[in-house]
Request: fold
Amino acid sequence: MAAHALFPRPGLIFSAAQALRRLGARREEAIALYEQYLASGEEGRKKDAETNLAELRGPAKTGDEAIDNPAAKALFDKGAALYQAGKYAHAYDEFTKAYALAPRSGITFSRAQALRKLGGRRDEAIALYEQYLTAPDATRKQDAEFWLGELKHSGAAP
Reply:
């Protein structure tokens, strides 16, 4: 965004949004930049921005569990496949979209795991593990406590 500060152009905003989207684990920032690009009135990459924005946002919560739960499961499964492939940033994004539809403690744990494996997001991973540990239905408390301790005391992310 340094180029944008010197030479403000909507195309630079779009490019920054693209970079964050492709990087992964920066969903909220990418969404904000796509929205800023669309608000500029620039037409050149409008369709691309709208498509990418919809992808980043994921499906809207309907409030109907018969619709939201299967959609959340599909997003979670996609995240799990990305996680297994070592694509932790994109796994985190899919887990986050799943959580928005069905805020379950297991998804919180998976989000924390993805951030821990990704590295560089220590405080956010710690906050997610702490959130998970307060959930009454948390089934992996011992694992969460272990990784929380590792992050707090050594910063390790194996």
The chain has a mean pLDDT of 93. The first helix runs from residue 2 to 6. The CA atoms of residues 108 and 154 lie 22 Å apart.
